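Quick one - first record:
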Amino acid sequence: MDSRTVDEVRIDDLRHDHYFLGETHDRNERKTWIVIAICTVMMVAEIVGGIWFGSVALIADGLHMSTHTGALLIAALAYTYSRHYANDHRFAFGTGKLGDLAAFASAIVLAMIALLIAYESVERFFHPVPIAFNEAIPIAFLGLAVNLVSAWLLRDDHHHDHHHDDDDHHHAAQEDHDHHAAYRRDNNLRAAFVHVAADVVVSVLVIVGLFAAKALDWLWLDPVVGLVGAAVVAIWSWSLVRSAGAVLLDMSPDPTLPQKIADRLEQNGDRIFDLHLWRVGPGHVAGIVSVATSQPQGASVYKRRLADLPSLSHITVEVELHRDGH
């Protein structure tokens, strides 16, 4: 027979963990390490090949690939660390936001890469250098192929659009889906994807620029294309800074969620007088809600009313007696 008291069982039942990692965390971690392996093999092959054949272009592209490998390593280590310490009680709300911290760091690296590309492009615009087209074009195609494979592996294929036959509910359903996708988004995977996707865009621009420069003998076209590529990378970097920064600063992840909570809790004269919502991991939202009521009930009653909101992974309810009910 169980020797625990009723109160001990009740307290035991109320305890819960703070495991707020995304549901595709393990899969995304594996994909990131696979892409790192591909980029590392490519990097070593280019540097060794460049030294063996005396090609400066190959060595330069190999070193360029090393910057992406380093950036992807930030994402991979964030996945591994957050999984390893997911149940460490020193983290008050788990390690779910570590991926957003890594994404923010990756966004800064991307911004630095954009500045370096822009600086090099401006330098070459005013001081043109001869281009070894026969070497540069095959390397650009090889880099494009590697980055396309990497981007395909790192794509976020977890979320799919849902089509609704009822046109009256389509707009609302689509809006809900957009907010749902936003708070579930894995910014760490997105950062890794943006690194390789940016390189895909830059590679395509470089190939176009090299062919055009070779055909028309316009050496100035290469640095112009470089500036366009730098602008694309900078824009994506800023987008990543905003989305990851919003999570790190505890911005409310879903503008529709406060009203959904109010619809469920503001009944029979009960009123919410304080509400805080923030994301603690991909697909996980924490909340603190304070309710004023003339007929106070246990916090579990209010939590049950919110049970159908799957995004609320951690909710704290405060109940205050307010005699006039207003």
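second record:
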Amino acid sequence: MRRMRAEPIVGVARPQGRPSSHPAPRRPDAQPPAVPPPSMSAPAGPRRWGRRLLLSLLVVFASSPLTAAGPGGQVLAVLIGGPAAVLFWVSVVGLVVTALRDGWRSHRQPPPSKSPARPPKVGTGAMPPGRPTTGGGPVRVAGAEDNWVKGARGEHAVGVALNGTGLPVLHDRRLREGSDANIDHLVVAADAVYVIDAKNLAGTLTTTGDQLCIDGRDRAKLLAGVRRQADEVVAAMSRLGVTAPVRPVLCLTGTARPAGVQFAGGVLITTPDTVAQVITLSGLLADDQRARIADLLAWAFPPAVSN
């Protein structure tokens, strides 16, 4: 049994020459853009106090002729020139203080480097084995990931064949809470509920009585696995008060395929080409009964992978 994944099997490469909304990735050895050097203008503090000092001095000089215009002019000169004189002396003190402070700060800072620091090199370690890599060409999948891709494609082919029957079908359902095992497909047909396990296997398949062999190797575990899944479905239907036959099916999608439909160890052995013939037999379950059983099974066996 295989746990289905939500991500796509192989990513689609972007055609060359099409505009992209994402910026192109920076090469590890590319130089960063040059940063313009900071301006060498005077600090903002001394400039600000210098402007205040000059403005206050101009106001004092402008208001001094008003003292010769009688008592009213003298009062006006005091009202204008007094605050300007105070601002003048405050500006003098502020200019001296900020100049000393900026000089002390610049003295504590280290001298600038003659050559800019080189940006750290980005490591280009090898990709972990078994993961897709792109080097300007098509994506290549190898190792255990390749087995998963083959199995997923075979399982998809079985799902397409089942969906074409028009029967209620549940795909990739969790076998039980807290388990990684899953049921590939559940089909509620007119004659029974079919538990279908899809396997992608290579070799020459032979069946003798209750034995299933591939290239002479006993593969009884495959039959036992789908029988256990069917037993779980029978137990769940019993708890829900549903009465219907349950039949295990092993659907083989690789080169190891049976000739037509075979039976071994209580399990029907089919392929994507013959599985529809098995599950579309006539039976006693009406359409409304099949829909009700499918709803109960969907509740009892939730999706193995949530979106």
